Each structure stands twice: as structure tokens, then as C-alpha cells.
Amino acid sequence: MRHKLLTSLVTLSLITNLYGEEHKSSAQIMQEALAQMEALVAKKPIKVKESSQEVNNTAFRLGKYGTFKFEKANDNVYIMHGPVVGPNKENQGFMNNPAIVESQNGLIVVDPGGNYNVGKKILAEIEKVSKKPIIAVFNTHKHGDHWFANKAIVEKYPNVEIYAHSNMIKVSKEGEAEVWYGILNRTTENLEGTKEFAFPTKALEDGQEIEIDGQKFMVQHPHTAHTDTDLLIAHMNSMTLFLGDNLMKGRLGSFDDSSSIIGNIALLENIKKETNFKLYVPGHGISGKLDETIDPFLNYLKVLLKEGKIAYKEDLEAYEIKDEVMKKLPWMKDWDAFQNNMPTHLNKVLIELGEQELEAGSSEE
Ligand SMILES: [Zn+2]
Q1: Which residues in the chain belong to E strands, given as ranges?
Q2: How far apart are CA 147 and CA 158, in angstroms?
Q3: Ligand 1 centroid – CA 304 distance (Å)
Q4: CATH of region 2-288, choose from 3.40.50.150, 3.60.15.10, 3.40.50.720, 1.10.530.10
Q5: Ligand 1 centre from 144 Cα, in Å?
Q6: Which of 363, 287, 300 shows the shortest CA–CA distance to 332?
Q7: Ligand 1 geometric centre to CA of 245 (Å)
Q8: Of 39, 266, 303, 357, which residue is least crowded by CB atoms under 10 Å?
Q9: Separation between Cα atoms, residue 248 and residue 226, nearest integer Å
């Protein structure tokens, strides 16, 4: 499995070179320049005509977390970086990184957000970037904080295609959507209208390439990393890699039964070795260049594995070593949910090491 992943990422990096900046045709460059001009023109009236009061009234504001809007992050790519915390009443369940890829005739949205009401506000922010119609949506994985806002997009654009990994669609329909609805319902109070889920409509598989209105995407399915439903989405025109929750910065999420911390480490190490994108976008936290985005989370997981292996040999439990491990992660102390989630992750590492030993034992027989 690991070998397959490596092979597919090597392919990814080869294609990366094919569509790299230096190989752009002059027509492509012209097209991008035109699109940027259009975006500039589209933005102008907002600044000129609206008073600051009006801007405030229409801003997407979430209490102490401030005001949220899309910002240009790469060529034709705009990202709204959500609050780097778990879902709560004040952030109304908005805490992910919705993104827009602008093509000549429309917009392609990645992970529109965590519920119908938040989705409507994000739609209003999308329209401030461009009035072009939304022509496609990608969902990175099964967790509702990333895709429940599909509902608001489908309401406005009933024929929009929503892409996700085949297993994401399957398990979401089989009950994972309900599980996430329950999690968000316990922590926020604005889920009205979310329950009739807008599931993705187009199943993608590992290694598939899709072209939407001149924008090339390549997707990879890491079989076991954050979950077994994830897609890494590479936007080749801009050289942007959307990692979903296989990468986080500034907060920790959860690893469920379908996930693998050891798999997540292998994935991020391969990405470090084999890829050279201009922009890496985590599921939560600020986007950036390769090392600044990947290293903190990868180093965290590697410390867990290293300390976990020592504990496993000595037959120690996670709670017995968590304070020592915490001291080895000084750069993590301000990350949201660190105190609560780190011991759970450590425990998950010990479970995975136990499973590895069992597998090794049974293959020797
Ligand atoms: Zn997630």
C-alpha cells in the first residue's frame, strides 16, 4: 500500500513538472492575466461605491474571531482561512478553509464549509470575489465541517457537480453525515436547513485527472491517513495542493478508526520528498510553502510515533507518558485542542503499533 502511494505521488510530481509555471503556453498566461484583470475590475466597485458602514453590515463576522473574507493565495486561487478552533456557538461551526478556483467562465469551490447557514454567508463572500457562477465543488473528505455547506451552493446552483472520493460518498450516505450532524449539533446552534444533506454527486478514484473549464485537477486518495475517504486535490494550473485534514496547522483534530497516524506520517514524508507545489493548503490553519505548512504537523506526528515506540516496548500506557511527551512538543503548546487531543493521538499510535505487531506475527506463521 505504501509502495502504491509512493508511485502515485511520483506520478503526481511528474505531472507537476508537466504543468509547471515554466511550461505555460503564452495563451495560458494571457488567459490568466485576463482573469486577474477581470477579478480586479470586479472588486473595484465594492471599494469605491460602498461606504465602510455598508461593508460592515455585509461582512461575514463571527464574534471574537473577527471578519472573514476570501483572499488571493495563488494564481486564480482565493482562500478564506477559518478560525483555527473546534466548532462552537461563536464561530457557528465555521472553522475550515473554503477555497475558490476561478476559471474563465465560472468558479470551482473546495470545501465550502460546515453548515447551510454558514454556506449562505460564504456564498455572499464568494460573490464579492467574482459574480461568475459556481460550476463545480470538491469535498476533501467525509467530515461535515468541510462539506455540509454544499447545501447552500446546490440551492443556488441546482445542477452543480460535487466531486468527492467514492468512499466519502458511500460512508457519508451510510451514516457518517448523521454522526457529524450530531457532533455539530452539540457544539453549535445554527444547523437549521442543514439536515437534508447535499451529498457529492460525482465519485472520484485515486489518480484521476479532471479538467473543468480549462482548469486541470489531479486527485490522489491516500488509503489510510486522516480518514479512508480523503482526496488530495492538486490544482495544476496554479500549482496548489489542497490536503484536507491530512494537514493541520494551529489546531489538532481527531483520528477515527478509519485513520492511521503512521499512514499520515508516510503521506506527508512522501509529499515533502516528491512534490514541489507553490502553495499547500491545510484543512485547518494558514496555507503556505512546503516546509512551513508540512513540518510542524509532520514533526508532531513523528514525535508521537517515536515516543509511542519506546512506550510500547516498555508496556506503558499513553496516560503514563503524556506529560513527558508534552514537554517534547514546545512548539505545539498554543495549538487549539493540544492538551485534550494529544493523549488520544498517543493512544492511537500505541493501538497502531499493536496492530502492526499482530500483522507481522500472522504473516510469519
Ligand atoms: Zn476532518
Answers
A1: 60-61, 67-68, 71-74, 77-79, 99-102, 107-110, 134-138, 161-165, 202-204, 209-212, 215-220, 232-235, 240-248, 279-284
A2: 16
A3: 19
A4: 3.60.15.10
A5: 8
A6: 300
A7: 5
A8: 357
A9: 10
Whole-number Å distance, alpha carbon 146 to ligand 1 midpoint, is: 7
Q: CA 68, CA 81: separation in Å to the nearest integer?
A: 8
143-169 pLDDT, tens per residue? 999 999 999 999 999 999 999 999 999
Distance of CA 179 from the midpoint of ligand 1 (Å):
13
Strands 240-248 and 279-284, bridge-based pairing: parallel
Q: How many residues does the chain have?
A: 365
For 363, the 3-state DSSP assignment is helix
Give the pLDDT confidence of 342-364 residue by residue, as tens digits: 999 999 999 999 999 999 888 76
**Centroid of ligand 1 to alpha carbon of 147 (angstroms):** 10
